[in-house]
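Our working data are protein records whose layout never changes between entries. The record below serves as our worked example for the rest of this section:
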Amino acid sequence: MKRNANVFIGMIISAVLVLTGCVDQSGQGALKADADDLKIVATSPAVADIMARLDIDLIGVPESTLSQIPPRYDDVTRIGLAMNPDIEVIKTMNPDYVVGPAALQSDLEPKLKAAGLKGVFINLESVEGLYKSVDELGELFGKQKEAQEMTDEFSSFYYEYSKVNKEKKSPTVLVLMGLPGSYVVATGKSYVGSLVRLAGGSNVYENEEKNFITVNTEELQSKDPDIIVRAAHAMPEDVVEMFHEEFKTNDIWKHFRAVQAGTVYDLPYGQFGMSAKFNFPEALKTLQPMIYGGE
């Protein structure tokens, strides 16, 4: 079974190769090095979690009130919020690498270049991307053994999990990602979209080019999804309140089959954020009864 599981996960990762991995901004490609000899900064909690699991020390980690930084970094310098790290603080630390999520690369990369810092950006926009990034960071920092162990765990988990919904009809799902006062559609290229796919649902915007798109409610209604799930980009309590108000006051929602059937669900922020995390099995367990009605 282990050989079959490894082949299975290899196929999954290969299928999303172009969307995953890490990018070294030095222009020299990924430079292999021993992590024990390097000074490394992680700019997001998700990245810090990966580095902890790879047994890599860090000299800088972000501040966070919604996500837990691994305890091994309790005494490490804080570099500001993940969305806006303090480049001046990072520069004074003279790191060899600054590792962050690819979703923030367009904003962070120019700032790092201007400060003469080397950035590595990893794709955390899907579960598949998470494990491809684990592989590449393991290769870059001499932690291949740790990376392989993590990938094997995912192989075994998903090989078994995929059997659960194998014979079931895949319901259509609309995924909304909210901020206080606004929301967008999460496509199959987003993390939440990847969880819906792994759980057996069919995202009505699976094959879009971008992770998130803006779509008017009339077009959303034309998709007529079986299920609507709503996630939060930040400030989850405010977003839940916003969604409830939107669905209550905007009359068009009452025409959606999902609303009429009561198959509209708010996803817990801790499991369904913007970046892929290692608690995805719990997220899939949360999704399962939403998508298949507790089957």
Summary: Residues 144-161 form the longest helix (18 residues). The longest strand covers residues 172-179.
